């Protein structure tokens, strides 16, 4: 069946904005959760600033559990929680909840990886000068790792774009929903191709922006 593109383009634009909204809100909330989680996992590990074996073990285990669950399964498994938070399990707003639960532990691990790249000698020098743990965390640890953090958050954002497309399989809205409803179920291949192209352009733009920002920070 021939697609009436004059009528269909508004749907594509709307679906694109839905995807942008899903990814933006999910990234915001996932970062607000994942960033402090990643910092705590780093500073409470053995030999670090606020060593605490119990806290490190519990948080690390929780992060590992959620990271091991495939997104499509996680999205279905937490439907009751999603309904509790936003009142529905279908649509763009509902997709944000599982996206946050999916991305937060992933971002926590990426933050942990970035912070662990900071040279121990820098931390030791700050301690020898009398800096406290929180001064070191916010004055040295995070600024020193900022360039790598930007790159890792970019990776997480791209992962969210892919996950938001998968959310369309269960009525999550956005480009994924459009591709499945028209490209797959109605065999309109041209619609599928357009949605894929938009997603590829989106990912390329995000990666380029992340790389550029990281380089600017590194030069400073």
UniProtKB/TrEMBL annotation:
* GO CC list: plasma membrane
Q: Which biological process terms from the Gene Ontology are attached to this UniProt entry?
A: D-methionine transmembrane transport
Keyword tags: Cell membrane, Membrane, Transmembrane, Transmembrane helix, Transport
The record describes its membrane topology as: Multi-pass membrane protein
UniProt cross-references to CDD domains, sorted A to Z:
TM_PBP2
Q: Main site of residence? A: membrane
Q: Which domain of life is it from?
A: Bacteria
Compartments, as annotated in UniProt: Cell membrane
**Where are the membrane-spanning stretches?**
20-43, 55-79, 85-108, 190-210
Q: Which residues form the ABC transmembrane type-1 domain?
A: 16-208
Q: Which PANTHER family match?
A: ABC TRANSPORTER PERMEASE, TRANSPORTER, PERMEASE PROTEIN, PUTATIVE-RELATED
- Would you identify the family this protein belongs to, as annotated? Belongs to the binding-protein-dependent transport system permease family. CysTW subfamily.
Query: Can you say what this protein is called?
Result: D-methionine transport system permease protein
């Amino acid at each position: 069946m021939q697609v009436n593109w004059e009528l269909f383009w508004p749907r594509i634009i709307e679906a694109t904005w839905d995807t942008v909204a899903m990814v933006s809100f999910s990234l915001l909330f996932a970062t607000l959760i994942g960033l402090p989680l990643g910092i705590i996992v780093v500073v409470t590990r053995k030999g670090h600033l606020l060593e605490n074996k119990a806290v490190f073990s519990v948080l690390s285990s929780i992060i590992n559990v959620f990271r091991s669950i495939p997104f499509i399964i996680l999205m279905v498994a937490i439907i009751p929680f999603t309904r509790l938070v936003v009142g529905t399990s279908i649509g763009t707003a509902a997709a944000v909840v599982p996206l946050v639960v999916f991305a937060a532990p992933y971002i926590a691990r990426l933050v942990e990886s970035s912070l662990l790249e900071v040279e121990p000698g820098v931390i030791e020098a700050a301690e020898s000068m009398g800096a406290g743990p929180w001064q070191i965390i916010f004055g040295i640890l995070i600024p020193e790792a900022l360039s790598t953090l930007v790159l890792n958050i970019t990776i997480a954002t791209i992962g969210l774009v892919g996950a938001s497309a998968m959310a369309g399989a269960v009525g999550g809205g956005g480009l994924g929903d459009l591709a499945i409803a028209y490209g797959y179920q109605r065999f309109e291949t041209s619609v599928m191709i357009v949605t894929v192209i938009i997603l590829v352009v989106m990912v390329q733009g995000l990666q380029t922006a992340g790389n550029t920002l990281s380089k600017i920070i590194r030069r400073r």
